[in-house]
Every structure is written in structure tokens, then in C-alpha cells.
Amino acid sequence: MLGGGVACPAFGVPHPTAEALPVPALKLSRTLSLDGMQPPQPPPSHHRIGSDFAPALHPFALRWEEAHEVAQAGEPLPAPTDEPTAAASTPSVVVEVSESAPGPATAPAVAAASSVQGDDEDSSKRYGLAPIRWGGVLSYSWRRQKADQGPELTAKTYEISAVAASYILQPWIAQIDGRVNVAFITSETQTGSNGVTGDSESVAVSGSAGASIFPLSRFPMSVRFSVSDSRSDSTLITNTQRSYRLSLRQDYRPIQGRWSTHATYDWDRIEGGTFGADTVHRLAGGYRWAADKQDFDVQGSLTENSRTDDDFSSQILVVNGNHHYRARQDLNINSTATLLRDKRGRNDGDSTLSTLQVYSSANWTPLESPWSAALAGRYSRSESDGSNERDTLNLTASGRYRFNRNLSAAGSLSTTTSRSNDRVQTVFTQAASMSYSADPLRFGKYSYSWGTGAGVSNTISDERDSRAASASASHSLNRQWIPSQTTVVSASLGQSLSYNRRFGVSDFNHSSTLSNTGSVSVSTNPSDATSGTFSLSVSDTRSRGDRRSEFQMLNAQMFGNWRLSRRAQLHANLSYQKSWRDDSSSDSEEVDDPFAIDDSSSEDSSLNGSLSYFHDRPFSVQGLRYSLRYTASQSNSNEREFGVLDADREETTQDLEQNLDYRIGRLTSRLQLRVAEVDGRKNAVLFFRVSRSFGGY
Questions:
Q1: Interior angle at CA 587, CA 583 and CA 588, nearest 5
Q2: What's the rounded Cα separation, in Å, for the pair 636 and 617?
Q3: What is the Cα 431 distance to its own chain's centre?
Q4: Nearest partner of 427 among 375, 466, 397, judged by Cα
Q5: What is the 3-state secondary structure (H, E, C) of 574-589?
Q6: How many domains does the chain have?
Q7: Is residue 454 part of a domain?
Q8: 3-state DSSP of 606-645
Q9: Of 288, 316, 351, which residue is a domain's last?
């Protein structure tokens, strides 16, 4: 026998399928020579695998477990030495690595894999498109709109919308999304009961695209561009409008440090059939820093607005800065600064107004001391059309001392310096006052309180000096009702009387004022999700003396959240105010002239806020929702001039909107009725839409 060999697998890997890739296997081989056959040697007391294995060990003395350990260790025994005796008596033990033969289906893949193996360690990386989330909507809408003293418009819209979103690498170098809408519109305009002025067909294409770059980093950036068309929206815009908007925003915060900054740029353009184009450029930024005892932030924006219908253009720069410093628990310092530069005009000329205001105050309010003090300074500068400069500096120091919880005294010193057209004027003012507030008196369920006060002041100026004295007294009666554990009703009546007298070298006047007030409020809080307050107050103020005036006011407010039932909610934040004013310079006898116009009398009213009602599953129909929303605003300013891009170009003072929505699966429908007052004209629209969504949205 020249030699013999034995092979055994060291471990096995389960193969999921017959077509799986080849799996490496360890094979232990022993080769013996004729001269190496000697009597067996006793095994060592402890079996060691590797280089410490005894070279004189006969290979057939290895047990199966020892051969298994040698194969798993993957380390061959030391090579035989150069001595003849050792070479003849030492077996050769080799651990080989072999691969099972691939099947027919995997042979090409193994060949391809073996061709790229080697020094290229990136061969296992795979590159491809990221998953794309996509979807869309198919919809049909019908709209009929009627404007006050205007034509009646009927439009039908067939619209298809597609949206997709994905990302670039993970964890998201960039997140991207896009949307495209295509609408086919057929419209009909009718002026009278039977008169049709014309039909039209059009195509409206709109959409948006955006990207959020490094959204999880310290310097995220967002980019978005969108195009919208009013013909495919349920709006009350009387003129067809098409809007374009580009928005950029960059944020940054450091690894260490408690500050952050951001910068934004917005471009918005509205194009219409009758008013031309309205374009807004807005560049804004901000910086914020915070520490343990103080914080500072500054915000600024530069807005340019231009309109082609009236050749109007404006440029408004606004910068605001605030600083708060808490020196001690009882000492706070607050500072604020505001810069405004307003330039506007038309082709006939421009007007520029610049103002700068800086205000700082320090308040000292110790907890266990009757003393408190404040120090404030204010600087303002105004300039109109490059001239008429006016600078004002005011410094005020005040203190207060409380003798007890009822009696307190206060005093103040102030100086004001004004400069206008190279003319400087300085005014010094000293004032002192004392007030007393009595403890409330109880008369059953009624509470009565009263108070009084008096004060004097002295004014010294370059032109003339003056002194003033005043006295006042007030009292009020309050009552509360608690009809339930969650409802409180409060009512109060109050009256105050004050007298003011001013006298000096060339100035003498006096006046007395009587004020009467009354209020009632209802507060309810049955649960954490339900709370609300309704209040109504009236006041009447009449002044007599060298100047006569009368003023009355009615104020009603309602705000809160009410859960009327398990599926119905009411939200309110609405206020109504009406005032009457009558002002005259003297008590002279009025002339009975029916044709005279009294400019001293006025009557104003305003309504602001919103009221909304929501009901889920009305009539017990699953998937049906009803909502009502009323908004009112008496603002007459164009907010787009100040960089409010979402503000409507047309002013809507009142708007009542009702929606009835129904959804079943991916099919949704909406019936809407809106009545509003736009630019002083009443408008109404009836809108219906049915849509079917598909995809992942």
C-alpha cells in the first residue's frame, strides 16, 4: 500500500433551493507515505489544535471530533522539518476549501460573479432608482357663479391630476415630489334670462415641483415651484387668475452653540384678464441666539410689489429686533428696535416714509418688598420724502410704593427732547399720584367695590409751563350665577367720575368726565374638549367743560370650542363692535340748520373673526360630512404689499361657505354653496365635484 486518504466535510450550510449559489465546504485530507508507518503513539493528555499539535502524532490516532475541530479551525498543522527522520515520520495534514458544482441555472451567474471578484470590494453594491410613490385623481366639476350686477357664469371642468414622490439615496440626500394637473374647461356666460353672450373652451395646465435637500441635517434647504389656475378651484374670484410662485429657504444651525439662522426668497406673480399682472418679490431672513439668562432675535424682510393695471409699485423694508435679559429673579431688561422704510407711488411720483424706533425698559419687582421701579428710554426718528426729519428722545423713571394691599403711591420723572427742522424743544414732566382700592363688600350674592385716586403733574418746557391736577372715584356692583357645575354667569355695573384741571401762565382749561359701563358674560367648561365664553358690554362716556364730547360703544365677543354631540363641533372666535361719537369744541347753543353737515359726529361698526360648524355622519350616513364656515374681516389694506403672498388680490369682507362631502372608498364628492362680499359686491357660487383617486395617494 503506497498511501491512503480520508476526507470529511467540516460543516454544512443549508441550501434553500437547488439553484442556489455554490457554498464553500472544508475538506480534511491526510496523506501517508510508506516510510511513515510506525506504531501508534499515545495521544497527549489534552488535545490542542493548530501549531501546538504534536508532530509525532499518528494521523489515524485522531478521533472524529478532533478531525472536526481541525477542519473548523481552518489552520493546517506545521509543515515537516528538513530532518529526514522527521520527514519520514510526520504526516501531511491539509485543509482544503472546495465549492460544490453549480447547477445549470446558476452557472452563468457564478461565472459572471467570479469574473468581477478580486480586488474590487464595491462589487456587492447595487445602484438603481429609488422607490417612487405615485398616484393621481380623475375629477369632474360643475360651477355656477353669479355676481351682483354682473353676468352669470356656468363652467364644466374635466381634470386629471398626477403626483409622484421619491428620494435620492438614504438617509435622504434629497426628497423630491411633483404634481401636474390638466383641466379641460367649457364655460357659458349669460347676461339675462335668455341672453347668452358666448361660449368658450380652454385648457388649464398647473402643477408643482419641490425638493427638500438634506432635510435631516443642520443645513436643510427647500425649493418649490408651483403654478395654479383659478378656473379649476372652487373660489369666488370674479376674474380668471393664474398664479406662479417660487420659494427658496435655507436654514443653518451649528454643531455647538445655541444660535440658528435662516434665509428665504419668494417670487409670486398673479396674472388676470382685467387687472394685468401683480408681482411680488420678497427676501427675508432671521437670526436667533439664546443663552441661560438672555436671548436675542432679529427678523427682516424686503418686499417689492408692482401692478400693471394702475402702474403701482412699492418697496417696503421691515427689520425687527428683540433682546431679553434676566439679570436677576426680580430684574428684567427688555429691548426692541423697529426699522420701517416704505416707498410707494405711480408714474406721477413716489413718496417715501422712513421710521426708526428703539425702546428699552428695565423693571425691578422684588417679591418681598413694597417697592417697585422701572426705567425706560425711547428713541424715534421719522423722515418723509427725504425731508421733514424729526428726532425724539424720551427718558422716563418711575417708582411705586405699596403701603398695604389697598393704598399705594407712585411717582415719575420724564424728559423729552424733540428736533425738527433745526429746532430743538425740551420738555420736563414730574408727576405723583395716590390711589386707594377698598376691599369688596358682600351683600348676599352681590359684591360691591369702590376706589378713589388723585394726582398732580408739572410740565416745564421752552415755550410755556403748565400744571395739572386730577381726581377720580369709581364703584362697581358684581353678581355671579352658577346654574350648573360647568356654567358660570357673571354681570357687573360700574360708574366712574373724574375731574381734570390744567392751569398755567397762558393756558387754563378744565373738564369732567362721567362714564357708565355694564357687562354680562357666560362661561362654560363641561369637559376638556368643550369650553367657551360669550360676553356683551356697553359703555357711555360724557365729558363736559371747555370741550364737550360724547362716546358710546357696544362690544360683543364669542370664542371657544363646543362639542355639541359626539359628532358635532362648533368653533367660534368672533367679535362685533359699534361706536357712536359726538365731539364739539364748546357748549355754545347749536344752530338749528337741517342742511348743515355735522362733521363732529360719526358712527362706526366692525365685525372680525370666524365661526365654524362641523358635523360628521349627518342623517346617520357613513362617509357623509357637513361643514359651515363664516369669516369676516374689515381690513382695507393690501397685504401683498407687505409680503403676505397668500393674501387675495380681491378684498373679501364677508364669506359664508357650506360644504357637503361624501366619500366611499376612493370616490369622493363635494357640494358647496358660497355667498360672499368681494370688493363691495355680493357674489354667490354653487359648486359640485366628484373625483376618483388612484395610486398611493
A1: 115
A2: 39
A3: 45
A4: 466
A5: EEEEEEEEEEECCCCC
A6: 2
A7: no
A8: EEEEEEEEEEECHHHCCCEEEEEEEEECCCCCCHHHHCCC
A9: 351
Is 65 among the domain residues? Answer: yes
Please identify which residue in the block is written with the cell numbers 359664508: 656
692 contact partners, CB below 8 Å, separation of at least 6: 137, 138, 139, 666, 667, 668
Instruction: Evaluate whether residue 255 is within a structural domain.
Output: yes
| Inside any domain, residue 323 | yes
| CA 50 to centroid of chain Cα atoms | 69
| Boundary-marking domain end, from 305, 324, 351 | 351
**How does pLDDT run across 614-652, given as a tens digit for each residue?**
999 999 899 999 999 999 987 666 778 888 887 777 778
Per DSSP bridges, beta strands 441-443 and 446-461 are antiparallel
Listed as own residue / partner, the contacts of 584-590 with beta carbons closer than 8 Å and 24 or more positions apart are 584/547, 584/548, 584/549, 585/547, 585/548, 586/546, 586/547, 586/548, 587/544, 587/548
pLDDT, residue 378, reads: 97
Q: Which three cell numbers stand for residue 194?
A: 335668455
Three-state secondary structure of 399-455: EEEECCCCEEEEEEEEEEEEEECCEEEEEEEEEEEEEEECCCEEECCEEEEEEEEEE
What domain range is 97 assigned to? 24-116
| Three-class DSSP category at 134 | strand
How many CB atoms lie under 10 A from the CB of residue 10? 18
- Between CA 32 and CA 35, with CA 33 as vertex, the angle to 5 degrees is 130
pLDDT tens sequence across 571-625: 999 999 999 999 875 444 444 444 444 557 889 999 999 999 999 999 989 999 9
Distance CA 458, CA 464 (A): 11
pLDDT of residue 114: 41
Find out whether 206 and 233 touch, Cβ atoms under 8 Å: no
The reply to whether the predicted model has a pTM over 0.90 is no
Phi, psi of 231 (to 5 degrees): -70, -20
